[in-house]
Amino acid sequence: MFISGFLVKPRSSQNGVSKTQSAGNQRHTSSLVGTSETTCATTYPKSFCEWLAGIIDGDGSMKVSKQGETSLEITMGLEDLPLLRYIQDMLGGSMKMRSGAKAYRYRLHNQLGMMKLIHCINGHIRDSARLLQLHRVCQVLDIPLILPITLDAQSNWFAGFFDADGTIGFAMKNRLPVRGSLMIRVTNKHLQDVESYKVVFGGNIHFSSSQNGYYQWSVQSRKDVLILLSYFQSSTFRSHKSRRFFLIEEYYSLYDLKAFHPESLNHKAWLAFLDKWKKLMI
């Protein structure tokens, strides 16, 4: 069947169909949409492909030039240069510091590299805007688009998307931590792009009207935070801010000892903890 210029192959997976938005009135040739069974062999581990798709969904973009050349760009802050270097080591490509911005831009644009990339992330991209970009690239490279697979608690996509759009923090008042304020958050402009976190890990989703509006998923109870910490211990995060996951258990331990009080015998340990925590600010 044809939908807005695309030839769509219905998905037969028992996990159901992930819906995508219309791509508008396209003048390009139609392209197939398939299931995970149509995936071509890739040289990259599945865990890396899932994680990379999360990074691209959050901080990347895929483009097709007027000349029909495809490319991938990922832009992240200076503190995440090691993360971008890791991607460059895996995929090839180039790196450049953005003039006037405290950020680096990674870029991949050779055709062979892009084809290997698409076979890697196809079926794992799910951000609304990024899925449309992927479809356009797939048209040029003559690769059937694979609809995003259903996520579960073993998927490394959550780690990649957190590395891009997540934060960990807690509130302080009068130099004391606010009870129950340790929070893990992920934000995005589109509701459907944070809903998977709530489905798999619980928590809540709130809408904020600031910055032209965005949705924020968060977990705040100790039980929910520790569930996500368990996921962290079985997945690979690579962002600068994700190192705070290693400090969560120490935070709870020192909080239970009330080490934040100046008169506490453990106050020096609390101050040392704060120093480590602040060094991981973004």
TrEMBL record:
Family annotation (InterPro entries): Homing_endonucl, LAGLIDADG_dom
Chain segments carrying region Disordered: 1-32
Highest taxon, organism lineage: Eukaryota
Keyword Repeat on entry: no
Residue ranges annotated for the Homing endonuclease LAGLIDADG domain, each copy included: 52-140, 159-251
Any one GO MF annotation of this record: endonuclease activity
UniProt keyword annotations, A-Z: Endonuclease, Hydrolase, Mitochondrion, Nuclease
Pfam families listed in its UniProt record: LAGLIDADG_1 (PF00961)
Biased composition (Polar residues): 11-32
Keyword Nuclease tagged: yes
Protein name: Endonuclease
Taxonomic source organism: Cucumis melo
